[in-house]
Amino acid sequence: MTDLERRIDQGTGREPADIVLRGGRFFDLVTGELVASDIAICGDTIVGTVEAYEGREIIDISGKIVVPGFIDTHLHIESSLVTPHEFDRCVLPYGVTTVICDPHEIANVLGTEGIQFFLDSAEQTIMDIRVQLSSCVPATHLETAGADLPIERLLPFRHHPKVIGLAEFMNFPGVIHKDPICMAKLEAFQDGHIDGHSPLLSGRDLNGYLSARIRTDHECTTAAEAMEKIRKGMHILVREGSVSKDLHALIPILTERLSPFLALCTDDRNPLDIAEQGHLDYLIREAIRNGVEPLAVYRAASISAARAFGLRDRGLVAPGWRADLVVVDTLENCKAEMVFSAGRRVTDALFATRKSVAPVGLDSVKARIVKAADFGVPVAEGETPVIGVMPGKIITEHRRFRLPTSGNQTSVDLDNDIIKVAVIERHGKNGNHANGFVQGFGLKKGAIASTVGHDSHNICVVGVSEEDMALAANRLGDIKGGFVVVENGKVTGEIPLPVAGLMSLEPYESVRDTLHHLRQAAYALGTTLEEPFLQVAFLPLPVIPHLKISDKGMVDVDKFCLIG
C-alpha cells in the first residue's frame, strides 16, 4: 500500500490512524475558533479533524490547545553560536518546526564549503531547515571577507531540495543602480523567491527595489515604514531577536486584517536568551500581552509565514497538511508542552536518530599578532567621527566629538562614554587594521573582542585600554575564534567558537551556561548593554546613507544605517 493510500484509509477511518491526539481543541486559523476535536496523524501528515478517530497510539491532550508549528522566517543559525544540529535540539522543543535560514555568516568566511555544511546538516535535522542562498558574499567592498560567491558559485545549489531561493538582498543601492553583479544574481532567481533587506528604504527607490521581484523584508523598525512596504506588496517579517528588537514598534500592524501579509522572525537569538525567554513563543506571548489578537499573531507565526515562502504543505491544523503541531497550555501563555515535527513526537530519543555532520572551518582565524601600539589613533584637526550605538538596534548614528588627546594620540572619553573600536582582518589575506571610536557601550575599563563581526567576520574589539584590546584580540587566535573579555591584563571570560570562528562544538546547554558567565564578565567592565557581545559583532558593518540614494548620490551625512 502506498503512503497516499494509507493516508486516505486512515482519514476515512477504514484503518486506525498512526497517532490520535484526543481530548483537546485546535486553533482554527481560518475562522479563529477553538474547535474540540480528535486530530489523526498518518506518517508525516494530518489526516483527520472534527471527527472521532481510533489510533494505534492515542495521546491524551485534555485541556490543551493544538496550534500549527511555528516558522522562523529569517535567521542566521550561526548567530545562535551553535551548529545546526544543536540549534535543532535547542529550538524545536519551543515549537519552532521550520526555520528559513541564510548561511550568510559562514558563507562570508568559507564560501561554498559553508553553504554545503548547512545543506548537509539540514538533511539530518528533525526540524525542517530551509536554506536561502547567500546573495551578498562579500557583503561590501569596504571590508575584506573570507570568500567571494558570484552567481556561478551559487547556481549549483539552486535546485537542492532544501533551497528556497536567494537570501536577503542587502545591497539595495546595488539593485537601484543596477550593479552588474547584483543584476546577474537577481536575473537568475526571477522565477524563485528573493528575500529582501531594505532598512528605511522608501518612495521611488523602494519601488525600484521591489521591481526586481523582491518580496519580503525583516528590517522595518517603525509601523509607518512597514505600512508603506505592505501597501507596495511586501510581506513584512516582524523581528525580535537578541539585538534587533522591533516587535513593540510594529505592534500596530499586527492585526487580523494585515496578518496574511505578516510573519515572525528572530534574526537572531542566542541560547541564553532562548533559555530565559523562549524563541518565537516569546514573540507570540509578548504580542498578545500588548493587545494583539491571538488569531493575528498565530497566523503570522505559521500559515502566513508558510505562504510567503511558498511552503504550501504547512501552517494549518487540517487534513492533508504537514503534521507540524504544537500542543500549548493556553494561547496567551504559548507554552509548548508537546511538539510534533512531520508527525514525529519530539523527544531526546528522536534527536539521537540524526546522523552527524563533520564540522568545517576549524582553522579560519589567521589574524596577525597585534600589540597595544597598533590601537593608537593620531590626533586630527576638528571633531572626531564616533559610531553611536542605539541599544536594541543595529542602526547606528554618525556622531562627532572633540576628544581628549595625549601627546599626538587621541584618547577615549569615559565621561561621554566614548571608547575605542578596532577591526582586524582575520582571513589571512592582507592584515588590514582600522581604529575608531564608539559611544554607547558603557565600558569603564577592559576590552571585549569577537571573531563574530558582521558581515565579513573579521575581529572586532572595543575597549578602554589598548593593552587589554591587544590581549583580547590575540587570545581569539589561541581559541580559534569566539568572544573574549579582558580586564586589567587578565582574561576574565571567553567562549571558543572554532567552527568558522562563529559556532561552538559544545552542546547548546554548555554554550548557554558559558554565555551567562561571559555576560557577567562584560557587566563587570561597566557595560550597560543588554547584549554587549552581539552589539560588538554588529559594529564592523559598513554604513550606507539612506536619503536621496538615487539622486546623484546626494545624502544627509547625519543619518546612516548599517547594511547587515
Textual characterization of the structure:
The protein has 564 residues and is α/β, with parallel strands linked by helices. It is built from 18 helices and 30 strands. A hairpin with an 8-residue loop joins strand 23 and strand 24. Helix 3 (104-110) packs across helix 4, helix 11 (271-277) crosses helix 17 (508-523) and helix 12 packs antiparallel against helix 13. Mean pLDDT is 93; it is low at 544-564.
User: What is Rg?
Assistant: 24 Å
| Strand percent estimate | 15-25%
The main sheet orders its strands as 20-19-24-23-26-25-27-28
Please state the average pLDDT score.
93
- For the secondary structure, the number of strands is 30
Summing up helix and strand content along with how strands pair, one would put the structural category as alpha/beta
Question: Count of helices?
Answer: 18
Helical content band: 25-40%
- Approximate shape: globular
Q: Uncertain regions: pLDDT < 50 for 5+ in a row?
A: 544-564
Q: What distance separates the N and C termini?
A: 51 Å
Sheet of most strands: 8 strands, mixed
Task: Give a short overview.
This protein is of the alpha/beta class.
List keywords for this structure.
disordered C terminus; 6-stranded mixed sheet; 18 helices; alpha/beta; globular; 564 residues; 8-stranded mixed sheet; 26% helix
